[in-house]
Every structure is written in structure tokens, then in C-alpha cells.
Amino acid sequence: MRKPPSATATKAEFDSRPANGWATIRRVAPYLWPEGEPWIKVRVLLAMLFLLAAKIVSVGVPYLYKKAVDALGVATGAATTGASAHDTLTWMGMGAVGLTIAYGLARMGATAFGELRDAVFVRVGQRALRKLALETFTHIHRLSLRYHITRKTGGLSRIIERGVKGVDFLLRFMLFSIGPLILELSLVAAIFAIYFGWQYMVVVLVTIAIYVTYTFKITEWRVNIRRQMNEKDTDANQKAIDSLLNFETVKYFNAEAWEAARYDKAMASYEKFAVMTGQSLSMLNVGQNVIITIGLILVMVMSAIGVRAGQFTVGDFVMVNAYMMQITLPLGFLGTVYREIRQALVDMGEMFGLLAQPAEVQDAPDAKPLVITGGEITFDHVDFGYDANRQILRDFTLTVKPGQRVALVGHSGSGKSTIGRLLFRFYDVNRGAVRIDGQDVRSVTQSSLHSKIGVVPQDTVLFNDTIYYNIAYGRPDASRAEIEDAARAAKIHDFIVSLPEGYDTRVGERGLKLSGGEKQRVGIARTLLKNPPILILDEATSALDTQTERDIQDSLNAMGQGRSVIVIAHRLSTIADADQIVVMEDGRIIEQGSHESLMARNGRYAAMWAAQSMDEEAAAYVSPAVNLPQSPEQERKLVSARRPDGGWDRY
Fold first, then answer.
1. Predicted TM-score of the model (pTM)
2. Positive or negative: CA dihedral 100, 102, 105, 111
């Protein structure tokens, strides 16, 4: 089997690689013309028809304006030369007034067609946005645990947020601004060439060419500034989120001022580039205004000369001005549109780079659902390291028989928690295999694997929702009675019903409104409700007091009946009754057997048991009320019994 990237992956390899502009456009295009959804195509075509109608009517508006002005001129001239009042009023009624009304109706029509276009297309755009957001969200959940622990949540959420907004902008403005603008400019240039002469068309086209070139050059420069501004914005945002998520730690170390200074430093960097962005925008706007004004003056002077020479009417002069003003608005908007499209492409490129990030752990093409026949778990000569320089497991071989309760013990860093992660397939092994009832976990679907394994972690993290929701997360279709039974088994039901809002009590961000023991019991209830055939208990009762731990231990033991259970433990007293105890060191098994056999061997496990027993004996002499020895005699005994390495000797 191909060696997974986990062996040599680095943080740089998991960074989102932005897609380039054209690749991004090609990536979005299928959402505008999806296969198998004809109603989307109908809406796009209808929106384009409304767009075409709006532009044709819009280009005709200045011509109607010119005709109305000429009609008024004729009427004024007739009145000056002595024509009858009846003739003058008839002409004005049939000409100027009618043309003025037509001019107004044309303006209304252009606006109406534009609004109809937006109304028809909005569902297409929002649907594309929703599908892309869902695709991104789903993909992020498919990425490996390694990826998520090397990325910062704040920065990741900002990439997604900007990328989704960029999709909405690109769909609306690229389709309904750039294309229509090119169409409108082409029609205006053609009208100038046909009606006024090629010289007018040349002036208009040269003005547009200089304007567009200047806009694109300056905007490209500004995009680089915006990219750096976004990086500083992301950095400041992730620092803020990281600080808020660790609110208690900040308080414990009186670090509010430090966090504020750290955040302010990040915002100062953002401010620098934000100021540069604003100043460069002013430079862009001034240059655009100068270019378009020079072009406007040139064609207006040319048309004024034509009027004086009798080649054109006053209405023609007005029409030239109207057309130039009409193209000035979209050209002015072009700078903004191009800039925002470029920025949207950058933002979307980051998001699509994230989507292009391959999932480290993937289902095999021929993966089948996991079938549990007994629940035997086998680690067969497993080697594993989180990276090439950090080997965790070395030739690790272990078999958990169906229904057995196997405990893993050892010092921190010995590889105990890694066993659970490999079984759950957060990572793939570098060598060897992990099997359940003979099925390699790499050959079964991850969904079926995860559904068959229940995990109670040492640090239970809860959703910012109700207690009911967090317990029901173990099996969303469970009845209320089943959820309450799970809470009773986890010894937390009485606590929940004592709360003013009971099961509807919200637990806060990451469950911070609950104590560590309360969170852990909710996590246990959640796993009890899931009722899986395989259990992993990773220091599952570490945050509980002794009495509650004993009560819940009974529940966990009862739950483990008939199931394969792997217990990762620090307190040896909680696993003394395990069917098999595995002592680990440096990723290897150094001792294995029952509690009695390991104690009889008088090896590493026996030494660990003795050390913990001494600590418990020493703790028994300490008053829980004041954390001091209960008497001078006891204090004398404890002091004399303490070894230089911090442990306790018998006395």
C-alpha cells in the first residue's frame, strides 16, 4: 500500500495553495451551467435576455433625448418665425412631449429589465454559494487531524468566509458588469462611428483603452497590497479567536494586557496596509477621472465645432454628452469591479486551494462497510510516527480478544493515545496493519469504522448548545427517555434536573459553563448513548472526584460487558481488574499480563503501582480542608519519607 503523506508531512505542505485566476473562474463556471438541473440553465438564459434588453434600451435613451431636444428647438424656431400658435402646439404635442415621454419610458425600461435580470438570477447565485459553502465545509471535515492541528481555526474560518463572499461577488459582477460593459461600449463606439464619424470613435476607443490600461495596472498593484492586508487581517483575527478560546488561561496568568498588546500589534500591521489601500484607491480614482474627463472634453469640443459649422444640431451635441456620461458611469465602476473581481479571485483562490488540499486519510476505492462479528482488535507489527523525525510506535503488536478489557499504561509520550488514534483511523500506519475482526481498517469505509467505535477522551469538548443536544449527539435519533437513561448511567442526571433550565441549559463555548467533571460526565453519557461495540476510554474519569469516579467506573464496566474495550489510564487503581494490562515505553510493549501476574513479576508495572500507592498514602495524611499535614507527627513522617526525586518511600 502507498505510504501516506503522514510520515513526512510538514506544516508548509498543509497550507492552502491559492488557485490562479483562470483556474478559479473555470472552477466556478459549472455552478452557472450545472448538468442535470435544467431550471438553472433556464434562469441563466432568461437573465441574459433581460440583460440584453436592458442594454439595448439603455443605449437608445440618449438618442431619444437628442430627438426631444431637436424637437424643442424646431418648436422654438417656429414660434420665433411667426408660425401660428396652433401649429406650434401641435408640433410640440406630437414631437417634443411624445419624445420626452418615450425618453422617460426608456429609462424606466432599462432599470426594469435590470431588476428583472437580478430577480431571476439571484436564486442561481445563492444556490451556487450554498453548494460551494457546503462543499468546503464537508471537505474540511474530511481533512486529517494532522491538518487541523497545524492550522489555526480563526485563519481557516476567515479564508472560508472571504472565499464564499468572493463567489457571490464574482457571479454577480463578472456576469452582469464586465460582459454588459463591453457590449455597451461597443454599441456606443459603433453609434459614434456611424452617426458622427470615425474620428469620434477613435477618440472614444483611445480614451477607453488608456482608461482600462491605467485601471488594470494600478489595480494589479493594489491587489498585492490588499493581499498583504488580508494576511494581516487573518493574523489579527486568529489571534483574537485564539485568545478568546483560551479565556480562562488568559485570566489564570493575568495576561489581558499581554493579549491586548499582541492583538494591537497585529492590528497595527493591518492598519499600515489598510492605509496604503485607501491611499492607492484615491490615486486610482484621480487618474481615472483625469483620463475620462479629457476624453469627454475632446468629443464635446469636436461636436461643438460641428454644431457651429452646421453639421450637427444642438440635439447631437447633447447626445454626444449623454453618451459620454453614460459610459463614464460604468467605466468608473469598472475600476471597482475589476479590483473587487481580482480580490474575489484571490479570496476564492485561497478557498479553492483549501478544497484542492487532499485528504490524508481516504477510503479505498473498493472499501466496504466494517462488519463486527466479535470485536477482535489486532495491531500487527505497527510502526508509526507523526513525522519522519518523531517515531512513536515501534514494531507494536497487540491483540484484544472479543469482549476483553485491555488497559494501556505508561509514562507520557510512550504512545498510549496514539493507539486509539490509529484504531479510529485519524492516521494511517507507516508499516504493519490495524485490523478489526480480520478487516484492515484501511480497507473499510471510515463512516462505518467511526460508527462502531466509541471514544471518551480525557478532554471532553462540548458544542455551544444545550446539555440535551450534547448528549443526543451520540445518537441524534434517540428518544428523550434513552437520553435521560444515558445521563443517569453517567451519574449526571440529578445534576442536570437541578438546573433551572434542566436539559435545555446551554453549556457555553466548548462547555466552559460546566466544570471539568461535569463536562466529562456529559461526554460519557454521549458515548453510552452511542452504544458502540468497541470502546476507547482515554483517561475517561481523570477529571472526577474519587467517589464519582467509582460510581461511573461501575457504569463503564457494565457498559463494557460484551464489548472490546481499550482503556488508556494513568491511575492504575482504575484498571487493576482489566483482563490484560499492557505497559508501554518508547512505543514498545515492555510488559503484558493481568494485574496479579505483573505484580508477581515485580517489574516496571509493580514499581509504578508502588509509587502510586505511596502517593496515595501520602495524600491520605493531608487535610483536604487546608492542604497541610493533620499533625506535627504526621508532617515529620511525610518529610522524612520523601525521596529527592519527589516520590515517597515506605516508613
1. 0.60
2. negative
